[in-house]
Amino acid sequence: xxxxxxxxxxxxxxxxxxxxxxxxxxxxxxxxxxxxxxxxxxxxxxxxxxxxxxxxxxxxxxxxxxxxxxxxxxxxxxxxxxxxxxxxxxxxxxxxxxxxxxxxxxxxxxxxxxxxxxxxxxxxxxxxxxxxxxxxxxxxxxxxxxxxxxxxxxxxxxxxxxxxxxxxxxxxxxxxxxxxxxxxxxxxxxxx
Length: 192
Description:
Elements: H1 2-8, E1 9-12, E2 19-22, E3 26-28, E4 31-33, E5 49-55, E6 59-65, E7 71-77, E8 79-86, E9 97-103, E10 108-112, E11 116-122, E12 126-132, E13 145-146, H2 167-170, H3 175-186
Antiparallel strand pairs: 1-9, 2-10, 3-4, 5-12, 6-11, 6-13, 7-10, 7-12, 8-9, 8-11
């Protein structure tokens, strides 16, 4: 598993609880068939909602943090750089970051538990499949947090300098401010 992580990870080190699963397309003269999820696969997610997302070139989505749900991410077409930062209090890889490069031509599934700050950058027009273990309609305000993608404290070497962001993501503040907000929510010190 570690050698596979190193094949797709371009910066940082593996984070505790993050699973990268090779997806093996079956190909023939008609095209291909790829199983993208089975409930018995090891990983930190029991998905309740699946979404297909299209992003135009130079879009960065995130960085988001969820305290109540786990996620699954897979590029179907195009390419994505996935940045992760572990902010879980009880994690052996707390305060560590990593960056993956994933593409639709070499399908893998990236699954990660709640408490991992995450974002995805798309250098080209791309489609990805995303699953969550809690429906978006059930989110509470405190479980859809975020921080500025470009904060140097994240230690994520994004391959972009001026990505297209949502209005909400443009207003995200620093990692330090996000951690202070989490401390208030869970009423426990959450400093780096």
